[in-house]
Amino acid sequence: MESTFQAVRAEALFASTLQMSQGPLAADVRDAVTSTLRGIGVQGCVACVATEFGDHPECATTRMGWALRMIKDAYANSCTPEVFAEPNVALA
Q1: Strand, coil or helix: what is 39?
Q2: Helices 57-74 and 26-55, interaxial angle, to 10°?
Q3: What does the angle CA 70 – CA 68 – CA 43 come to, to the nearest 5 degrees?
Q4: FRET label pair with 54: which of 14, 29, 90, 92, CA 20 to 30 Å apart?
Q5: How far apart are CA 21 and CA 14, in angstroms?
């Protein structure tokens, strides 16, 4: 399951002008997310995603899958691994 941050970032990437065919680097993805969120905001991204899924579900599914993969890669180091580690339970 994606975190809220991943979901918002994926929606922003989905709504951006960045294309899969461009073979974007992680920095390109982060720049696209930032500029899209600044330009249309979270609600604008949600509206864009909803519209595309309503109008072109076959294409939207592919693009969202790509967006989620790109976000996971581009933001892989944005949080330390310790945050996601299982708690260390001492055996008694």
Answers
A1: helix
A2: 160
A3: 115
A4: 29
A5: 13
